[in-house]
């Protein structure tokens, strides 16, 4: 580590301790040349998940878009904001732990619908009607029939 005072490239670690609930490490260092002390922080580098849209464009994953879409679907329904945030956190954790750096927007949409189906069936149908672009009442009815069959 380069000394911020004299620019010497060698230093030794005097003390290390975790910070930010174990998400980073604070290191106290001493320059081998000028003997001055300085602090460095080490943390895991976040590589963002890229979302591949239908038209082929790519965007950085944005959890707020999912929260907003789910909250719109859950409007005037007995679904708490906390349960929506937990569902989005589950989706985000699933994407991050998969190790995949690019994911199709369709995959995220399916994950959202799965979570909504568990939270509230009406919110699920609302989201599905927009997401799957129901063309007519028959498509809507077919989706409702699927839900009823799953319940039995």
TrEMBL record:
Instruction: Tell me which residue ranges form unnamed zinc fingers.
Output: 3-34
Q: How is the cofactor bound?
A: Binds 1 zinc ion.
The protein's matches in PROSITE patterns, at most eight in alphabetical order, are given as:
ATP_CONE
Single Gene Ontology BP term?
negative regulation of DNA-templated transcription
Query: What are this entry's molecular-function GO terms?
Result: ATP binding; DNA binding; zinc ion binding
* Keyword field: ATP-binding, DNA-binding, Metal-binding, Nucleotide-binding, Repressor, Transcription, Transcription regulation, Zinc, Zinc-finger
Cofactor requirement: Zn(2+)
The record, for InterPro entries, names:
ATP-cone_dom, NrdR-like_N, RNR_NrdR-like
Tell me the ranges covered by the ATP-cone domain, including all copies: 49-139
Name the job this protein performs: Negatively regulates transcription of bacterial ribonucleotide reductase nrd genes and operons by binding to NrdR-boxes.
NCBIfam families with a match to the protein in the record: transcriptional regulator NrdR
Q: Which family does it belong to?
A: Belongs to the NrdR family.
Protein name per UniProt: Transcriptional repressor NrdR
Question: Which organism is this protein's natural source?
Answer: Peptoclostridium litorale DSM 5388
Q: What would be the name of the gene that encodes this protein?
A: nrdR
């Amino acid at each position: 580590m380069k000394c911020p005072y004299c620019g010497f490239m060698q230093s030794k670690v005097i003390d290390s301790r975790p910070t930010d609930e174990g998400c980073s490490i604070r290191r106290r260092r001493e320059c081998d040349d000028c003997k001055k002390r300085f602090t460095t922080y080490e943390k895991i580098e976040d590589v963002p998940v890229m979302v591949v849209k239908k038209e082929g464009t790519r965007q950085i994953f944005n959890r707020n878009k999912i929260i907003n879409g789910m909250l719109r679907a859950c409007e005037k329904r007995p679904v708490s904001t906390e349960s929506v945030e937990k569902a989005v956190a589950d989706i985000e954790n699933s994407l991050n732990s998969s190790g995949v750096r690019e994911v199709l927007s369709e995959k995220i949409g399916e994950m959202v619908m799965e979570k909504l189906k568990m939270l509230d069936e009406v919110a699920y149908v609302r989201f599905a009607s927009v997401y799957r672009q129901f063309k007519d009442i028959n498509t809507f009815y077919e989706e409702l029939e699927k839900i009823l069959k799953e319940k039995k």
